[in-house]
Amino acid sequence: MSSQATPTLRLTGIGASPGVAVGHAFILDRKRIRTPKLRLADAEVEPERMRMKTAIDLSDRQLAELKDQITRTEGSDHALILEAHRLMLHDPMLVDEVNRLIVEDRINAEWAVRRTARKIKHLFDNIPDEYFRERRSDVDYVADRIIRNLMGQVVDEEVEVPAEAIVVAHDLPPADAAMMARSGRVAGFVTDLGGQTSHTAIVARARETPAVVGAGRASEQISPGDLVAMDGTRGVVLVNPSEDQLALFREEQRRYQESEQLALATKEQPAVSTDGFRIRLNGNMEFLEEIPSLLAHGAEGIGLYRTEFMFLDRKTAPTEEEHYRAYKQVLEAMGGRPVTIRTLDLGGDKVPGKTKHEKEPNPAMGLRAIRYCLSNRELFRVQLRALLRASVHGNMRLMFPLICGVSELREARSELEACRTALGRAGVPVGKRFPVGIMVETPSAATIADRLAQEADFFSIGTNDLIQYALAIDRQNREVAYLYRPLHLSVLRMIQGIVTAAKSANIPVSMCGEMAGDPLFTLVLLAMGFDELSMTSGQIPVVKRLMRRVSRHEAVEMLQGAMELTTAEEIERYVRMEMDRRFSGPEGSLLSGGHDVEPGPL
């Protein structure tokens, strides 16, 4: 479709996988099927239950075949998601409730499945962890599969995607996303639903395919064949752009590709300022498949390995052997580079096999992370034993999340040492002693950072929670999300205090929250004196390039000027102005949110 035929439409969503892409829209119609609603006669109840059992068995076989296919071509990481779907098929929460509705309410299986799925999804609504909140979509994927099989419809239909297409969908099942990304024909993904941790986002980042998710009604507003220009970093989608807009997107695409090529050419070069200050740039990861991309972009290690994925949609908690195998694979894949593994950071409402507690009114401040682990010692010990065993396979560092005081750190370290002693007595090999650090992500920990630094081997600042708690806002609440300001003076002072405490105690200090990878904050963090920053793979080359073009002395002067100001708006304006002044030209487009690729409002 000509870019002049239809007025340009601008859509905004969530930048889930970095990169710029231009291509024609391929609309994947995976809309939910219409669910028939029927009342059953008494004699139809038992046959209906058998029909439901048959549909579940068929769904299980289909998922097993898909899992085998993806394992052969993609490896085991995305296949784990399909295994989780198989477990959901047989979860009593689903099966027993569907059978109850068939028997007691006398309704057909399709209607019962849809009602049960809606009920289960509501349980996810108040979960503070974004990754697990996104698993609501898994419930829909499983329910739709069962319903399609009940109705005799085609499931897992192969789709031929045109070369360089922008795939647009309401949402993408993990199998579809993985298979289409693997084909190499997809230029980018745009979905109505999803967040940074949705399956589409995870697959796209692993495959380095630009993606914008959570784009509202994109699948309804974009027509097949429309020319689409998308920015997977800023979450911007232009439909049928003008010639001027398209030219700017093409230039942005050229710059991004140039930056990627430079990243491959300079991946071994250190992130060092012009006056010699060195910062290690590490990667954040969840799945083994993300490691090749991290290494290709110059990651010097893993600064945050999230282990929560192992608890995804299971009826039982992962075994010690499952933990051990996962950590062993990552440590070996990193070839001696440091790997910082964070222990479980979840609330009890999401740990399988445990009694569900009464819904907490404020889960973000409830029994979660290290608090939950110290309240459920055996589950904690299973993970610690596996970590100790895996430590023989690489350069491991261990990190406890949501530490609020010295007593929690002491308790957690005591459990670690007890596990080490028990394994030694049993003759189980464990690695040499490794660094044990903490996530500093609460105001209480920031305030007593000097005391914590006496007992922790390193600090890693988790800015996502630290900023949220410090400013008393819920980032998921749209009414107050605008108040989330990393450059708020109180946040800057808090971070500076944490770094100072670490330096005084002579322990390393890093940052692994979203702030670490945002180019706008690079000079602020350089000035503060961080030893390490950890981010997604696509952010590493940009941060490195900026860092290698300035002196730390300049960065310190800029930070001093910023902290003489008072409001977050003033500080942000000043920092942006200083960054633009230093990096005008090609580097200017690297600054997150600093420039629009469109030539003005539409």
Name given to the CATH architecture of the largest domain: Alpha-Beta Barrel
CATH-assigned fold name of the largest domain? TIM Barrel
Number of helices: 24
Instruction: Enumerate the strands of the largest sheet in spatial order, edge to edge or round the barrel.
Output: 1-8-7-3-4-5-6-2
Number of DSSP E strands:
17
Q: Summarize the amount of helix as a percent range.
A: 40-55%
Shape: globular
Distance between the termini: 19 Å
Total separate domains: 3
Oligomer: single chain
Care to describe what's here?
- With 602 residues, this protein is α/β, with parallel strands linked by helices.
- It has 3 domains: 9-29 and 170-254, 3-Layer(bba) Sandwich (Glucose Oxidase, domain 1), CATH 3.50.30; 44-151, Enzyme I, Chain A, domain 2, CATH 1.10.274.10; 266-590, Phosphoenolpyruvate-binding domains (TIM Barrel).
- 46% of the residues lie in helices and 13% in strands.
- The protein contains 24 helices and 17 strands.
- The strands form 2 sheets. The chain has an 8-stranded mixed beta sheet with strand order 1-8-7-3-4-5-6-2. Strands 10-11-12-13-14-15-16-17 form an 8-stranded parallel beta barrel.
- β11, α12 (320-333) and β12 (338-342) form a beta-alpha-beta unit.
- The radius of gyration is 25 Å and the shape is globular.
- The model is unreliable at 592-602 (pLDDT under 50).
- GO terms for molecular function: kinase activity; metal ion binding; phosphoenolpyruvate-protein phosphotransferase activity.
- Belongs to the PEP-utilizing enzyme family.
- Mg(2+) binds at residues 441, 465.
- It is found in: Cytoplasm.
- Residues 12-135 form the Phosphotransferase system enzyme I N-terminal domain.
